Amino acid sequence: MFKILKYAIIPCFVVLFYCVGVSARPLALVYREPAGCDDCSSAIAKALESSRFQFEVKYVGPNEKLKLTSSSFVGASLYVQPGGGQDIPAAKRSLGKAGIQAVRDYVASGGRYLGICMGAYLATDFGFDIVEGETDSEVGRPNFPVSDIGNYVVPMKWKGLPVWVYYQDGPYLPKNTGNPGFREFAHYKNGDLAAARYSFGKGSATLVGPHPEATSDWYEEHGLHNPDGINAKLIHDLLDEAMAK
What we know:
The chain is α/β, with parallel strands linked by helices. It is 33% helix and 24% strand.
């Protein structure tokens, strides 16, 4: 009798443990095409899966099974708008009014938005209008070492520490001190804001101008060298900020 109970209980425990482990993974929605690039979407997806949160990643977009509609956001812990091209108005048009409203509603009701490069531009009145304040390209700004829209590795300070990061025409961000959830944590070498978190309704938006999610392929393709190597700590720290309450 004891042996029967012993071996009956163990499988049930294993099944229960497995189910809890699977259901405990938070869901991250990553936008893919046309307002973003494939490499940008896949790079951030890999970072999400390898982070301490071990996200379950699903892609959303006009060519994906999940579209940019309110129903797609049910159960999502994070929405990511990745990098893309230089045509911001075209990116906004491709998102569509209904898609933009779906993202706004998701964040306002308590969701989390992560915008990288183009995704940071689109968080402002250039797109989703969930972050107030002026923003524009950091290219050509006073004391910034880049004067064109090429691919570079630039110095910056991440929470006060000097680091190097992949950069391609990313924005400087608004220092919106009037926003109750405003928190700045990364700056370009000239002091312009490079990464920050803002509140919108019951939710939050975390933005970054450069590309801390860049993979080794990006550097190899453009013949770039990062003195810090591929520093996964930056993107993982960014995800910690995005997921903070």
